[in-house]
Amino acid sequence: MTSLLIIGGTGLVGSAIIRESQKNQHLSSYHNNHIYALSRTANRYKSVPGVSYVQADALDPNSLRKPFDSNPNVVHTVGTLIEQTKYGSNGTYDKINRDTVVNVANIMASKYDGIHRRCLVYFSAGNAPPRYLLNERYIQSKREAEELLLGNKEFKEKIRVVVLRPGLIYSYHRRQLMLPLALGLIIGSAILKPLTSYIPTSAKYFTDRPLSDTEISRAVLEILDDNNIEGIYEIEQIKLLAKIWEKKL
Predict the structure, then answer these.
(1) What is the rounded distance in angstroms from the CA atom of residue 236 to the CA atom of residue 100?
(2) Which bin fits 32, alpha (ψ -120 to 50), beta or left (φ > 0)?
(3) Which Pfam families does this entry report, sorted A to Z (predicted)?
(4) Is residue 175 one of the residues assigned to a domain?
(5) 101 alpha carbon, distance to own chain's centre
(6) Partners of 74 in the β-ladder
């Protein structure tokens, strides 16, 4: 049995991956994964067959060691748009968007032999919103994480790193208040995409088509299923991965 560890397993994306994975257990290509859903607020008493909820902190390497006992593939969905002051120094963009995934990669590299590389899927971001909407450290911390993951020789030898760069992720299951914004961006991106070369970098966020949590989760399942997938995947490539997985349904 292959195990899958989702860092941020109780969030919007983590929950969608669990939901989609459980729907596909009848498929011949299904991994027969046991999923460990990890977050600071996870409740182990909510565990169900095939899914175990694990309370741990991605910034605390000691709390992560046990979840890695089964040598899992890992999907890292943790991130923040706004610095979380309630967590003090652990709530900054650098700590949440960058250091959490580097901690995870370091543990994977220390435990894995490199013969059978496990996969680490990191949720980065596409084009950043303009600075008047969002602090630029948001995207800078994401890009720094990408560089550290893809530029480390030991990581390359022992981990199959896949970086996803989606734009806005919307859901019909959670945060439905985001749906009007997602619809507006879908329409806007369709209009602006042909004009991308004329649009300043600071406004290219508005050319990124939002993706549903279903599309995202199907793309992740395809990544886990195909050992040849590696490196950075932009929005159109993510959509293509989701369609490839859909053909297996």
Answers:
(1) 27
(2) left
(3) Epimerase
(4) no
(5) 10
(6) 5, 120
- Its domain, for residue 128, covers 3-170+211-246
Q: What is the pLDDT of residue 29?
A: 52
Distance set, CA 54 to CA 5, 14, 46, 48, 202 (Å): 10, 13, 10, 12, 39
Mean pLDDT for 121-133 is 92
Distance, CA of 120 to CA of 105 (rounded, Å): 8
In a domain, 183, yes or no: no
Asked whether residue 92 is assigned to any structural domain, the reply reads: yes
Provide the number of structural domains found in the chain. 1
CB 191 within 8 A of CB 199: no
pLDDT category of residue 228 using cuts at 50, 70 and 90: very high
Contacts 24+ apart (CB under 8 A), 180-189: 182/210, 185/209, 185/210, 186/210
Residues 6+ apart with CB under 8 A from 45: 53
Q: How many CA atoms lie within 13 A of 89 on its CB side?
A: 0
Q: Of 29-38, 91-100, 175-184, which gets the smallest average pLDDT?
A: 29-38
Percentages helix, strand, coil for the chain (3-state, rounded to 5) are 50, 15, 35
Residue 182 lies in a domain: no
